[in-house]
UniProtKB/TrEMBL annotation:
Cellular component, GO, one term: cytoplasm
InterPro entries, per the entry: ACMSD, Amidohydro-rel, Metal_Hydrolase
Pfam family, one: Amidohydro_2
Residue ranges occupied by any Amidohydrolase-related domain in the UniProt entry: 10-318
The organism of origin for this protein: Athelia psychrophila
A GO term for molecular function: hydrolase activity
Gene Ontology BP annotations: secondary metabolic process
Protein name (Swiss-Prot/TrEMBL): Amidohydrolase 2
Alphabetical UniProt keywords: Decarboxylase, Lyase
Family affiliation: Belongs to the metallo-dependent hydrolases superfamily.
Length: 344
């Protein structure tokens, strides 16, 4: 696996781990281990992986975090994370963009007044990252809930790009085995549940100008959409089965940890190629792990005209600012940057 001479991919799903995240502690809680060498993280670790995988630009986002509270501290932390990501983009022109974090979503005023405008208008974020739900246990609320309508109204007004990532929440029972931790078995299903909630509540249709990208090819969404279409209609959904399927197909889907022949064949039947974006989930996984899926993509679309669109053009069309980031970077020094190891 080596794509270093062909920097052409845009990685829509690429995390950053600031020191305040305490990723090592989260690993223990979630039943996951970040690959050796990726912690503590800094941009040079990502750049090495990007060069090996042939990635020109990666969109930075924090791992989905559904926890928090309405507080000034929560607002300050979101601002600090977004400023940190914006600084990385500035220091490595042409190599990074970012999807802004928001305060705990129940803090409607903090989300609307303190961060969406600042992130998109001042820091020039390329979009917004959201978890599938906010809170935990019985207090958890999925993002299609009416109380979040003001947030969706603002994102719809701005025609924003939103990255929807499954929350890292345990189910009502422990995960089955140490080899099947929360990121392995729970996160993809959380993505599906949030997508389904947006569809059956009519919010996906109501806020149709928001361009929502589902993590990990939508988790189980392509396989369970038809189940939702008939059964949720039976339970009282105002949409017809055909409308429910239509709304599921209006999402975008990124390929991180999901690019395998079986899944890709299903996606070809489910959506048009312009709805699929390349992603890796690095540095939550190793370059070798991300490379396994990347090689599957390369092989599957070997002689397919869709390949370039999926690898880069769909993301560039969805977020024109990314093209400007790449085109405005001039010279090797500008592309490689000089990281100042800033802490937050």
């Amino acid at each position: 696996m080596s794509h270093e001479k062909d920097l052409h991919r845009v990685d829509f799903h690429h995390h950053f781990f600031p020191s305040t995240l305490n990723k090592a502690k989260l690993n223990i809680d979630l039943g996951w281990k970040t690959p050796a060498g990726n912690l503590p993280w800094d941009p040079t670790i990502s750049l090495q992986s990007m060069d090996a995988l042939g990635t020109q630009l990666a969109l930075l986002s924090l791992p989905a975090n559904p926890f928090g509270e309405v507080s000034g501290e929560n607002r300050q932390l979101a601002r600090a994370h977004n400023t940190f990501a914006a600084n990385v983009c500035e220091e490595y022109p042409g190599r990074f963009g970012f999807l802004a974090s928001l305060p705990f979503l129940d803090d409607i005023e903090g989300v609307l007044l303190a961060e969406i405008a600042h992130a998109l208008d001042v820091l020039r974020a390329d979009g917004i990252a959201l978890a599938s739900s906010y809170g935990s246990g019985l207090d958890s609320t999925y993002i299609g809930h009416d109380k979040y309508d003001r947030v969706w109204e603002e994102l719809n007004r701005r025609e924003a790009v939103v990255f929807l990532h499954g929350a890292q929440l345990p189910s009502s029972t422990p995960h089955p085995d140490p080899l099947l931790g929360i990121p392995v078995v729970e996160v993809p299903n959380e993505t599906f549940k949030a997508a389904a909630h947006l569809v059956v509540t009519g919010k996906k249709r109501k806020y149709a100008r928001v361009k929502i990208v589902l993590a990990h090819l939508g988790g189980s969404s392509p396989f369970l959409a038809a189940r939702v279409a008939v059964l949720s209609r039976h339970m009282g959904c105002a949409l017809t089965a055909e409308e429910i399927l239509e709304d599921f197909k209006s999402f975008y889907f990124e390929t991180a940890l999901s690019a395998h022949e079986t899944n890709l064949a299903a996606m070809e039947k489910f959506v048009t190629p312009d709805k699929i974006l390349f992603g890796t989930d690095f540095p939550a996984v190793s370059t070798a792990m991300a490379g396994w899926y990347t090689d599957n993509l390369d092989e599957y679309y070997l002689n397919d005209a869709s390949k370039e669109a999926i690898m880069s053009q769909n993301a560039l069309n969805l977020m024109p600012g990314l093209r400007a980031r790449i085109e405005n970077a001039t010279g090797v020094d500008a592309i490689r940057g000089t990281y100042a190891n800033r802490e937050i």
